[in-house]
Write a structure and sequence with these properties.
heterodimer, A: 108 residues, mainly alpha, 2 domains, 77% helix, flat, B: mainly alpha, 12 helices
């Protein structure tokens, strides 16, 4: 059972902390110029952090108890591939979902 | 001729496709929170105050394992460190806005609003600050209300959703669908590949810190490949 006080400390603490992280640069730095080397690294935040979050979830899905699964692996590859070639998030999502459900249907 | 209004609607159109995956993603959070033992108020408070799916799931996971409060906060904030990076990346584009506008934009900074906006700002360097804000709020318009309302639906439906829907996979699919179109150059591809490989090798690092280290490795790889391409004169 989760302790109620701890839970609210976490909710409020994370709320403030998350806003603090989001406001850190836009709020404090304002329109001062950031150095080139920093901007060069920041260009790659999304394309680095998001795949890093996704990769373990794709290879060792919690739903299968951590066993690699053909349906989920192929859905992930199709999603990224279609996204890359069509430059369209919606096509990527739809192809990924279709591949996942087709794959799960075929194995079951 | 683009106006502030047309740019706002362009943002809405660019944000709209995310609804499709935000629905299962936010419902999944509502369902998982309910199954972990949170009531409706607590579940909604998490979505409205934290506004960060990955961090919310991380916190929920650790809370259910009875991890110490400090560890729960540090780990979830580390997963959210990318928000500080997004904030820094948005600063050159939104820095001239008023403090109030920047505070609202900060609250609305999520993966989707960040990814769409930075791409649009790079493609439209001539946009005025009010057009850039309008585009940002446009992307947020379909994304955030969906996140809140379907957290509620998920919490309300609770455990009645069957496992065969495989809602668990909405998270990685959403992340990958956002990354594919963002792979604009060899440097971006290098960043993604290095991050994936590092993340898989670093899963043993406790409390999700491996993801953060993998993210940094990917960013360094991207920056290095960019420098190499600039030296060879193939960077565009």
């Amino acid at each position: 059972m989760i302790d109620r006080i701890d839970l609210w400390i976490v909710i409020i603490g994370l709320g403030l902390g998350s806003f603090g992280l989001r406001f850190a640069f836009t709020g404090v730095v304002g329109d001062r110029k950031l150095p080139d080397w920093l901007l060069r690294h920041l260009r790659y935040t999304a394309v680095a952090v998001l795949p890093a979050l996704a990769a373990p979830l794709v290879v060792w899905p919690a739903a299968t108890g951590g066993t690699p699964d053909a349906a989920r692996l192929s859905a992930a590859l199709i999603t990224a591939g279609v996204g890359y070639y069509t430059r369209n998030v919606l096509f990527a999502l739809l192809s990924g979902a279709a591949t996942l459900y087709l794959g799960l249907y075929l194995v079951s | 001729m683009q106006t502030t209004k047309s740019v706002y609607w362009q943002g809405v159109r660019n944000g709209a496709p995310f609804i499709l995956m935000m629905i299962p993603f936010s419902m999944l959070f509502g369902v998982t929170a309910t199954e972990t033992g949170l009531n409706l108020t607590e579940t909604m408070a998490m979505s409205v105050l934290i506004v960060a799916g990955a961090a919310q799931f991380t916190a929920l996971q650790l809370l259910s394992e009875n991890a110490p409060t400090v560890i729960v906060m540090i780990t979830a904030l580390t997963v959210n460190l990318r928000m500080a990076m997004y904030s820094a990346a948005l600063t050159p584009h939104l820095g001239e806005a008023s403090v109030a506008h920047r505070a609202v934009a900060a609250y609305l900074t999520v993966d989707q609003t960040y990814a769409c906006s930075v791409t649009a700002y790079e493609a439209n360097p001539g946009w005025t600050i009010s057009m850039r804000l309008a585009y940002f709020f446009g992307v947020a318009t379909p994304v955030l209300p969906i996140w809140f309302s379907f957290t509620f639906v998920g919490a309300y439906l609770g455990a009645s959703i069957p496992d065969t829907w495989a809602l668990d996979f909405a998270i990685p699919i959403t992340f990958l669908a956002m990354v594919g179109p963002a792979l604009r150059s060899l440097a971006h591809i290098a960043a993604a590949l290095v991050a994936i490989i590092a993340s898989l090798f670093l899963v043993f690092v406790p409390f999700s810190l491996g993801v953060v280290l993998a993210g940094f490795s990917g960013m360094i790889a991207g920056a290095q490949v960019e420098l190499m391409m600039r030296r060879k004169g193939v960077w565009t």
